[in-house]
Write a structure and sequence with these properties.
Layout: E1 13-15, E2 20-22, H1 24-30, H2 42-52, H3 73-76, H4 78-93, H5 100-118, H6 130-151, H7 161-178, H8 187-194
Antiparallel strand pairs: 1-2
């Protein structure tokens, strides 16, 4: 009997994503790449603990890394930042196929939109892929509603597009810090969900681990 993935080595670990045993090598190389690993898989948890102690380096051409964020921007807009993070986590909670790259693509596009708007040019370029585009639209709708509510309260200082840009850059960098770069990683999404443990809207999915 051989590993169902490589068909070479002896299967040694039960894989909840496959529903059968696979070899340790394929578990390590295919984890969050071709395997849609449930968040409570013990091997996935162990791998994430290892990653926490070995931060990966980012390519020099990673978007938005050269932007300078004002030191007080997050503190000044703490509630809005939390609301944006919650909106992303809520969207991903009802989209089980959403992964970190979907969230990051949507946030990056949102940042570019508000940077353009801050210069007085109205131009949008939503993500091409369906899931990031849906998340992008949901965040745009949320921010539009926030601005509308602020406009109804003259005593409230209007939210500037450049401030929104900086908040998006901060969120994007946060995502880069919490994901591991694997195609099916959900580390950033799980991190956001963990910030709101009492919310019923972000209830964790039931375990997909099947005891063999």
């Amino acid at each position: 009997m051989s590993c169902p993935i490589c068909e070479k080595r002896k299967p040694a670990r039960f894989c909840p994503a496959k529903g059968e045993k696979i070899c340790a090598v394929c578990c390590g190389t295919e984890r969050e790449v071709t395997l849609d690993c449930p968040s409570d898989c013990s091997y996935l948890i162990s791998a994430h603990r290892y990653e926490d102690g070995h931060q990966r380096s980012l390519p020099a051409d990673t978007p938005l890394l050269d932007e300078k964020i004002p030191q007080d921007i997050v503190h000044t807009h703490q509630q809005l930042m939390a609301a944006l993070a919650f909106s992303i986590a809520k969207f991903c909670a009802v989209q089980p196929t959403a992964v970190d790259t979907d969230a990051l693509e949507a946030i990056q596009a949102l940042a570019q939109t508000y940077k353009t708007l801050s210069s007085g040019i109205i131009y949008e370029k939503p993500p091409a892929a369906p899931l990031p585009r849906e998340l992008y639209a949901a965040l745009i709708a949320f921010i539009t509603e926030v601005k509308k509510q602020q406009a109804e309260r003259p005593e409230t200082a209007p939210l500037k597009d450049m401030e929104l840009f900086y908040l998006c850059v901060f969120l994007y960098r946060m995502g880069l810090l919490h994901t591991n770069g694997r195609p099916r990683s959900r580390r950033f999404i799980e991190f956001l969900r963990g910030q709101f443990p009492q919310s019923p809207e972000l209830k964790r999915e039931e375990s997909r681990i099947i005891v063999p």
